[in-house]
Amino acid sequence: MQDGLEDQFQEFVRARWSRLVRTAYLLTGDAHHAEDLTQTALAKAYRSWRRVARADNPEAYVRRMLVTCNSDRFRKRRVTESLTAAPPEVAWRDEGAGRVEERGVLLNALAALPPKQRAVVVLRYWEDLSEAEVAEVLGCSPGTVKSQASKGLAKLRACPGLAPAVGASTGAAGQGGER
Questions:
Q1: Residue 148 in contact with residue 142, Cβ under 8 Å?
Q2: Which letter does DSSP use for residue 14 in this model?
Q3: Which of 16, 35, 57, 67 lies 20 to 30 Å from 129 when distance is taken between CA atoms?
Q4: What is the distance between the alpha carbons of residues 35 and 24, in angstroms, rounded to a whole number?
Q5: One digit per residue, pLDDT tens: the chain, 179 residues?
Q6: With a threshold of 0.70, does the pTM exceed it?
Q7: How is 22-74 classified by DSSP, letter by letter?
Protein backbone atom coordinates (compact mmCIF):
# COMPACT_ATOMS: atom_id res chain seq x y z
CA MET A 1 0.00 0.00 0.00
CA GLN A 2 1.22 3.52 -0.72
CA ASP A 3 2.37 5.63 2.23
CA GLY A 4 -0.50 8.11 1.87
CA LEU A 5 -3.11 5.35 1.90
CA GLU A 6 -1.32 3.60 4.77
CA ASP A 7 -1.43 6.80 6.84
CA GLN A 8 -5.08 7.33 5.96
CA PHE A 9 -5.94 3.79 7.04
CA GLN A 10 -4.04 4.13 10.33
CA GLU A 11 -5.83 7.41 11.06
CA PHE A 12 -9.16 5.75 10.30
CA VAL A 13 -8.40 2.89 12.72
CA ARG A 14 -7.25 5.24 15.49
CA ALA A 15 -10.38 7.38 15.14
CA ARG A 16 -12.93 4.58 14.93
CA TRP A 17 -11.45 1.58 16.78
CA SER A 18 -13.44 1.93 20.00
CA ARG A 19 -16.75 2.53 18.21
CA LEU A 20 -16.22 -0.49 15.94
CA VAL A 21 -15.27 -2.69 18.92
CA ARG A 22 -18.36 -1.50 20.80
CA THR A 23 -20.57 -2.41 17.84
CA ALA A 24 -18.83 -5.78 17.54
CA TYR A 25 -19.34 -6.36 21.27
CA LEU A 26 -23.05 -5.73 20.91
CA LEU A 27 -23.16 -8.16 17.99
CA THR A 28 -21.17 -10.92 19.71
CA GLY A 29 -21.79 -10.37 23.42
CA ASP A 30 -18.13 -11.15 24.19
CA ALA A 31 -15.26 -8.67 24.52
CA HIS A 32 -12.65 -11.04 23.08
CA HIS A 33 -14.83 -12.02 20.13
CA ALA A 34 -15.55 -8.33 19.57
CA GLU A 35 -11.87 -7.45 19.30
CA ASP A 36 -11.20 -10.45 17.04
CA LEU A 37 -14.17 -9.55 14.86
CA THR A 38 -13.05 -5.94 14.59
CA GLN A 39 -9.50 -6.99 13.69
CA THR A 40 -10.82 -9.37 11.04
CA ALA A 41 -13.01 -6.67 9.48
CA LEU A 42 -10.17 -4.14 9.57
CA ALA A 43 -7.77 -6.65 8.00
CA LYS A 44 -10.22 -7.08 5.13
CA ALA A 45 -10.64 -3.31 4.91
CA TYR A 46 -6.86 -2.87 4.81
CA ARG A 47 -6.54 -5.26 1.86
CA SER A 48 -9.08 -3.23 -0.10
CA TRP A 49 -8.48 0.19 1.48
CA ARG A 50 -8.18 1.94 -1.88
CA ARG A 51 -11.81 0.94 -2.64
CA VAL A 52 -13.02 1.52 0.94
CA ALA A 53 -11.49 5.00 1.08
CA ARG A 54 -13.30 5.97 -2.14
CA ALA A 55 -16.69 5.02 -0.65
CA ASP A 56 -19.08 7.79 0.37
CA ASN A 57 -18.88 6.64 3.97
CA PRO A 58 -15.86 4.45 4.79
CA GLU A 59 -17.09 3.85 8.34
CA ALA A 60 -20.39 2.43 7.05
CA TYR A 61 -18.43 0.28 4.60
CA VAL A 62 -16.30 -1.17 7.41
CA ARG A 63 -19.36 -1.55 9.65
CA ARG A 64 -20.95 -3.66 6.90
CA MET A 65 -17.75 -5.75 6.81
CA LEU A 66 -18.08 -6.16 10.58
CA VAL A 67 -21.63 -7.45 10.34
CA THR A 68 -20.70 -9.76 7.45
CA CYS A 69 -17.69 -11.15 9.31
CA ASN A 70 -19.94 -11.82 12.31
CA SER A 71 -22.42 -13.69 10.11
CA ASP A 72 -19.55 -15.66 8.58
CA ARG A 73 -18.58 -16.90 12.06
CA PHE A 74 -21.83 -18.83 12.19
CA ARG A 75 -21.78 -19.98 8.57
CA LYS A 76 -18.28 -21.41 8.55
CA ARG A 77 -18.53 -23.33 11.80
CA ARG A 78 -21.07 -23.64 14.49
CA VAL A 79 -19.94 -21.61 17.44
CA THR A 80 -21.31 -22.50 20.81
CA GLU A 81 -21.73 -19.56 23.07
CA SER A 82 -22.25 -19.95 26.76
CA LEU A 83 -24.04 -17.16 28.53
CA THR A 84 -22.82 -16.20 31.96
CA ALA A 85 -24.71 -14.71 34.85
CA ALA A 86 -22.65 -11.51 34.67
CA PRO A 87 -21.16 -9.75 31.65
CA PRO A 88 -17.37 -9.61 31.41
CA GLU A 89 -15.59 -6.49 32.48
CA VAL A 90 -15.07 -4.07 29.61
CA ALA A 91 -12.34 -1.51 29.08
CA TRP A 92 -14.65 1.25 27.90
CA ARG A 93 -17.49 3.05 29.63
CA ASP A 94 -20.46 3.82 27.42
CA GLU A 95 -22.70 6.38 29.06
CA GLY A 96 -25.62 5.42 26.79
CA ALA A 97 -25.74 1.94 28.29
CA GLY A 98 -25.99 3.47 31.77
CA ARG A 99 -29.61 4.37 31.00
CA VAL A 100 -30.54 0.73 31.27
CA GLU A 101 -30.63 -0.26 34.93
CA GLU A 102 -28.92 -3.59 34.44
CA ARG A 103 -26.45 -3.62 31.58
CA GLY A 104 -26.03 -7.36 31.97
CA VAL A 105 -29.75 -7.94 31.46
CA LEU A 106 -29.64 -5.98 28.20
CA LEU A 107 -26.54 -7.79 26.94
CA ASN A 108 -28.04 -11.19 27.78
CA ALA A 109 -31.27 -10.22 26.05
CA LEU A 110 -29.35 -9.08 22.95
CA ALA A 111 -27.35 -12.31 22.97
CA ALA A 112 -30.59 -14.30 22.96
CA LEU A 113 -31.80 -12.64 19.73
CA PRO A 114 -31.13 -14.37 16.41
CA PRO A 115 -28.09 -12.84 14.63
CA LYS A 116 -30.08 -10.86 12.03
CA GLN A 117 -32.45 -9.38 14.63
CA ARG A 118 -29.51 -8.57 16.90
CA ALA A 119 -27.69 -6.81 14.04
CA VAL A 120 -30.79 -4.78 13.16
CA VAL A 121 -31.47 -3.77 16.78
CA VAL A 122 -27.82 -2.84 17.43
CA LEU A 123 -27.42 -0.83 14.24
CA ARG A 124 -30.85 0.78 14.36
CA TYR A 125 -31.16 1.70 18.02
CA TRP A 126 -27.67 1.60 19.50
CA GLU A 127 -25.75 3.02 16.53
CA ASP A 128 -28.78 5.21 15.70
CA LEU A 129 -28.74 4.46 11.97
CA SER A 130 -31.82 5.08 9.85
CA GLU A 131 -33.78 2.16 8.42
CA ALA A 132 -32.28 2.87 4.99
CA GLU A 133 -28.75 2.91 6.41
CA VAL A 134 -29.29 -0.37 8.26
CA ALA A 135 -30.75 -1.91 5.10
CA GLU A 136 -27.67 -0.80 3.18
CA VAL A 137 -25.27 -2.20 5.80
CA LEU A 138 -27.08 -5.54 5.97
CA GLY A 139 -27.82 -5.77 2.26
CA CYS A 140 -31.56 -6.15 2.69
CA SER A 141 -34.71 -4.10 2.13
CA PRO A 142 -35.97 -1.42 4.53
CA GLY A 143 -39.06 -3.59 5.02
CA THR A 144 -36.87 -6.42 6.29
CA VAL A 145 -35.21 -3.98 8.69
CA LYS A 146 -38.63 -2.87 9.96
CA SER A 147 -39.88 -6.42 10.49
CA GLN A 148 -36.65 -7.64 12.10
CA ALA A 149 -36.57 -4.57 14.38
CA SER A 150 -40.20 -5.13 15.36
CA LYS A 151 -39.60 -8.80 16.16
CA GLY A 152 -36.36 -8.05 18.01
CA LEU A 153 -37.92 -5.28 20.10
CA ALA A 154 -40.90 -7.51 20.92
CA LYS A 155 -38.50 -10.17 22.22
CA LEU A 156 -36.58 -7.56 24.22
CA ARG A 157 -39.81 -6.21 25.73
CA ALA A 158 -40.72 -9.74 26.81
CA CYS A 159 -37.44 -10.13 28.75
CA PRO A 160 -37.86 -9.86 32.52
CA GLY A 161 -36.01 -6.84 33.85
CA LEU A 162 -36.02 -5.06 30.47
CA ALA A 163 -39.72 -4.42 30.00
CA PRO A 164 -39.83 -1.10 31.91
CA ALA A 165 -36.58 0.21 30.36
CA VAL A 166 -37.39 -0.84 26.79
CA GLY A 167 -41.03 0.22 27.01
CA ALA A 168 -40.16 3.61 28.48
CA SER A 169 -37.33 4.45 26.12
CA THR A 170 -37.33 5.17 22.41
CA GLY A 171 -34.95 2.35 21.57
CA ALA A 172 -33.63 -0.96 22.79
CA ALA A 173 -30.59 0.63 24.38
CA GLY A 174 -32.24 3.84 25.41
CA GLN A 175 -30.59 5.73 22.56
CA GLY A 176 -31.89 6.94 19.27
CA GLY A 177 -35.43 6.75 18.15
CA GLU A 178 -37.67 6.34 15.18
CA ARG A 179 -36.82 8.56 12.29
A1: no
A2: H
A3: 35
A4: 7
A5: 577 888 899 999 999 999 999 999 988 888 999 999 999 999 999 999 999 888 888 999 999 999 988 887 766 655 566 667 776 665 555 555 445 456 777 888 888 899 899 999 999 988 888 999 999 888 899 999 999 999 999 998 888 777 554 444 444 444 444 43
A6: no
A7: HHHHHHHS-HHHHHHHHHHHHHHHHHTHHHHHHSS-HHHHHHHHHHHHHHHHH
